[in-house]
Amino acid sequence: MSPRENEKSHRRKKEHYFDYSLLFIIIFLVCFGLVMLYSTSSYNGQVKFGDSTFYLKKQLMATLLGIVAMLIIARIDYHFWERFTLVAFLLAHILSAAVLFVGSDFNGSKRWLKIGPISFQPSEFAKLAVILFLALVISKVSKKIKQFRTMMMVMALCGPIVALVGVNNLSTAIIILGIAVILIFVASPKYMQFIIIGLGGSVFMGIFIYLEKYRAERLKIWLHPENFDKGYQTLQALYAIGSGGILGKGLGESMQKLGFVPEAQNDMIFSIICEELGLFGAVSLILLFILMIWRFMIIANNAPDLYGALIVVGIMGHIAIQVILNIAVVTNSIPNTGITLPFISYGGTSALFLLSEMGLALSVSRQVKLEK
Amino acid sequence: MVKSKTFNRKKIVIVFAAVAMILIMLVGRLFYLMIVKSEYYQEKADELHEREREIKAARGKIIDATGEIVATNKTVCTISVIHSQIKEPEKVISILCKELELSEEKVRKRVEKFSSIERIKTNVDKEIGDKIRSYGLSGVKVDEDFKRYYPYGSLASKVLGFTGSDNQGIIGLEVKYENYLKGQNGYILTMTDARGVEIKDAAEGRVEPISGNDLYISLDSNIQKFAEQSAAKVMEAKSADSVCIIIMNPQNGEIMAMVNLPEFDLNDPFTLNFETTETLDEKTKQNLLNQMWRNRCINDTYEPGSTFKIITASAGLEEGVVTLEDTFHCPGFKIVEDRRIRCHKIAGHGSETFLQGVMNSCNPVFIEVGLRLGVDNIFKYFKQLGLLEKTGVDLPGEAGTIMHKKENVGQVELATMAFGQSFQITPIQLATTVSSIINGGTRVTPHFGVAVRTYDGQLIENFSYPTKANIISSETTETIRFILEKVISEGTGKKAYIPGFRVGGKTATSQTLPRSAKKYISSFIGFAPAENPQVLALAIIYNPQGIYYGGTIAAPAVKEIFENILPYLGIEQVYEASEIEEYNIGDITMPELVGLTKKEADKVLKEYELNVEYLNEGETVTDQFPLAGETISKTSNIILYLE
């Protein structure tokens, strides 16, 4: 150690921290995700495309691309992106608008843009753009953020993109809103305002649900999934979870993935993890996510500036909200809404942008100054 | 560059804490779902995944009195294709087309259909199934299954019955003895995916099927064949609608044959046994099928007519209101109250004894006997003889007797009942009642079922049937046998006379309702040997064209059957001297005729009374049949070949 230390001592000022723990967690999650994806999708791939590795291959491509992107982004100073932020934010609007007109249908929702052989989900990009944009804006106005007016203006900036995304993809719109709220919450020194916003939001949601029959029905399905046709997916997920028991049936041994849980490799993948790996595996996965979020917290708290900290908080909020909502939906703790489980669920765009976000977080971690 | 403040850090910690807390709550939820509710959901999931695949049990065989199998199972194959496993679709299509004799278009459609499993053909013979299997084509599945098979086709079709798609009995003995025959299906508990496709190596349990038990019946396929042949002959000759024949053992009620022409093919029971010009809708076709499946011997009633006089005579003799020597006078009719009831002989039989009255089948004689008996006595004997109840035959759907209410019977009704009109009974009822009268007075239960054994021959049950002794005295039995033998030897039943056998019987000709339709039912009931009846036969010809008298058309049919089956049953011919003379009975040894000229042969043959038939033209005998030295009957036909 010492000779090496001496050798590099003159460069000490330039030596930076790098959060290897986070990198390890990311790699572990990505690999675990691929294994589980293969396990859940092989049947569907075989039935639909005659190729059990159909989904795995596609996901693997996106993941490899994502890892390359992550490693590149991690090496770039995150301040580099400041100058592109506005462009990216506007581009997110354009793409989200475009998908409304020329998007391709899948399961009744227009969420994909097809460019040649590649299909791309603009809402995934929108999340990243919003994180970067809000982090930049809030760090610029951080002194005035405690003012209610400023806060509202910042929220208002997110309005158009939330609306555009929300048309087809309510879940992602909620995630974007959630990220915005968390960012403002972290930037603002106040508490009371947020409690009021929280209460106001709840009342608003209540009225919203009450007024729209469609949502009220969703609520009924949530409470008694066995009585409704539309509760099928939820019920099948519960069967999968329940039949997992403590140690699960073993990797690859799920019965529910054989067409019972529809599109098991998508939103409901967590139920198959429960079935195959049991409570033990499911809790381990949740702990892994907690660990990851904890690393984000450490990085954010040690970030050299508020901008960096907010980027990481945005990413943290993104991951946390998706994990919570996904697991809550799968366990029927909240009404069903389509949210994927980060790093695990099938989705190329999602994998690419999540890994890019990880690159950003790692990039911020590189700037952490080691204090001795 | 804006630095983070302390409160920012604090808030980040709060966010983390909140997130971690929510996640821990979700872990709690998982604990609840995966431990507390685990069993509940596991059970529900298992219900969803598990499929019981049945293994069909072999249905028991039906074995006749001679040990012949008349109903058994045949292994058939179902050929299916599994789309995803097919590797050489063209080869599969061409081989399946060739082996199954299906059009290429049809096979191609199924092979190329994007489905999990597609059935190509069912009920394929095992040999073809084995052949297809031997090609070893991947994706082609050959499943074996049992199908009921009747080796004799249409033989006793309405008695044996057939089975449906679930191998369950539909009519006849198949349904009556369902519980013995059906066996118990086994099953394999397997797991399937959401499409119902079985998962390999996931079988969890297997319960072996238990084969059904074999039913041994009294029906004798040889006797049945004889009877069906005779019935077919008379049905064709008389263009009759249908012909029923029941042959039973009057001593114990065992039924040896039950013919219901036209029969139908048991191996193809859902195809009508006649041509139809128009296309039938589902309901009409089902009605016609039900008609085709009807066992008229049991399911339908008819007016028995003169054969019923046996019962009236028995009642009269038993009650003592008439003796054989009582004399009657028949002017060709009898007036009862205000009705003039005709005898079949318009000129009248004149003066006659009771015995002669029976031999002549004279209606006025029986009207008189009926009136002497009175309503109470007639009903007493009907009840005592078991006529008013069902026979209890072991076939489904037996029809009951359609009889006047006792309080509605006046003199006219009584008079018509006495000679078998104005009420209806089933053929099996008549056969059973006459059996009971001639067997010494024991009411028997007609039946087919004798015993049930396991498939490997172990006895499970010997059936016993209720009997009722002394329904009539043995004196009356003997008198009736004597009278009925006279009917055959000298009376209306002469056409059933067989030299060497003592046959008793009674003919009948009845008109169906409405009388104006001029449709007749011609029947004959006979038994042999008269002194100790071993076999009783009832033949009923429905709507014969031309001559319709029972004595003319039904009696010869029974005679033909008796000639065949009496020796078969081991009843020997005993000729009386008068018979030998009258019927020229005796054997000769066939003389050598080959080489002789036609004239010489004629000379030789003159000594005998043989019927000679010459074949070809010529003067010299080149061959003869039977050959020289063979023992032949005096009245045989012989054939000589000339050149």
Automatic annotation (TrEMBL), chain A:
Topology in membrane: Multi-pass membrane protein
Gene Ontology biological process terms in this record: cell division; peptidoglycan biosynthetic process; regulation of cell shape
CC per GO annotation: cell division site; plasma membrane
Subcellular location: Membrane
Keywords of this entry: Cell cycle, Cell division, Cell shape, Glycosyltransferase, Membrane, Peptidoglycan synthesis, Transferase, Transmembrane, Transmembrane helix
InterPro entries assigned: FtsW/RodA
The EC number(s) this enzyme carries: 2.4.99.28
Transmembrane segments: 20-40, 60-78, 85-104, 124-142, 154-185, 191-211, 268-294, 306-331, 343-364
A molecular function GO annotation: peptidoglycan glycosyltransferase activity
Catalysis: reaction(s): [GlcNAc-(1->4)-Mur2Ac(oyl-L-Ala-gamma-D-Glu-L-Lys-D-Ala-D-Ala)](n)-di-trans,octa-cis-undecaprenyl diphosphate + beta-D-GlcNAc-(1->4)-Mur2Ac(oyl-L-Ala-gamma-D-Glu-L-Lys-D-Ala-D-Ala)-di-trans,octa-cis-undecaprenyl diphosphate = [GlcNAc-(1->4)-Mur2Ac(oyl-L-Ala-gamma-D-Glu-L-Lys-D-Ala-D-Ala)](n+1)-di-trans,octa-cis-undecaprenyl diphosphate + di-trans,octa-cis-undecaprenyl diphosphate + H(+)
Family note: Belongs to the SEDS family. FtsW subfamily.
UniProt-recorded name of the protein: Probable peptidoglycan glycosyltransferase FtsW
Organism: Lachnotalea glycerini
Automatic annotation (TrEMBL), chain B:
PROSITE patterns hit by this protein: PASTA
Keywords in alphabetical order: Membrane, Transmembrane, Transmembrane helix
Stretches that traverse the bilayer: 12-35
Location within or outside the cell: Membrane
InterPro entries: Beta-lactam/transpept, Beta-lactam/transpept-like, PASTA_dom, PBP_dimer, PBP_dimer_sf, PCN-bd_Tpept
Gene3D superfamilies the UniProt entry points to: 3.30.10.20, DD-peptidase/beta-lactamase superfamily, Penicillin-binding protein 2a (Domain 2)
Major location category of this protein: membrane
Family statement drawn from the similarity comment of this UniProt entry: Belongs to the transpeptidase family.
Protein name: PASTA domain-containing protein
Species this chain originates from: Lachnotalea glycerini
